[in-house]
Design goal:
By secondary structure, the chain is of the alpha+beta class. Helix content is about 45%, strand content about 20%. Strands 5-6-4-7 form a four-stranded antiparallel β-sheet, with no helix packed on it. A three-stranded antiparallel β-sheet has the order 1-3-2.
Length: about 190
């Protein structure tokens, strides 16, 4: 099943992927006089550069007002931040923006049923002092395709072990979570 992201989430995700492909920079520089003066742009393949250039021209030349509004909205929500630097303006993804990107990544995980027909089970007992992380963790489990068996026991038929471990690590819940692999669920 293909998930359709809202436009702002898709833009933020595409921005993150672009930055990640240019050697992991979490910021890039925009200079109005030199529109292609981005660190890491020399590492793009010719095809990637053509796509980048096409998107640049479309977003900055033909739709600059819409693009500026989108960036403004993302800045207002706290996902992006602009900084003045010698080269011009630097746009960075904030920690809140990276959190949003992580949630988008969880939504976009391709879910394939396990070949061995086993179920991934997550057991957790997260203290009340970590309520926010517990709620985010539950939402992440839902994105990964987990179903609630009991309040703190979730099961999933998909092969999402790596993503589940990333989720646990992301919210620093290692001491409170156990992962199991079970043959069957219920009495059947």
């Amino acid at each position: 099943m293909k998930i359709k992201l809202p436009f702002t989430e898709k833009f933020l995700w595409d921005l993150y992927k672009f930055i990640d492909k240019t050697e992991g920079f979490l910021s890039f520089f925009i200079d109005a006089d030199k529109p292609y003066n981005f660190p890491g742009i020399e590492n793009l393949t010719p095809a990637q550069f053509r796509i980048f250039k096409k998107n640049w021209e479309y977003n900055y030349k033909k739709r600059s007002k819409d693009f500026a509004r989108l960036v403004y909205r993302l800045k207002e929500r706290g996902y992006l931040k602009t900084l003045r630097v010698k080269e011009g303006a630097s746009v960075i993804i904030t920690p809140k923006g990276l959190e949003k990107v992580f949630k988008i990544k969880m939504k976009l995980v391709e879910k394939k049923k396990r070949k061995d027909k086993k179920w991934q089970m997550v057991l957790f007992d997260i203290p009340e002092t970590k309520r926010k992380q517990r709620n985010w963790f539950r939402k992440g489990l839902q994105y990964l395709g987990y179903q609630k068996l009991q309040r703190s026991i979730w099961v999933c038929p998909y092969d999402v072990l790596k993503e589940t471990k990333d989720l646990i690590k992301r919210y620093k819940l290692e001491p409170y979570v156990e992962l199991l692999l079970v043959k069957k669920i219920g009495l059947s």
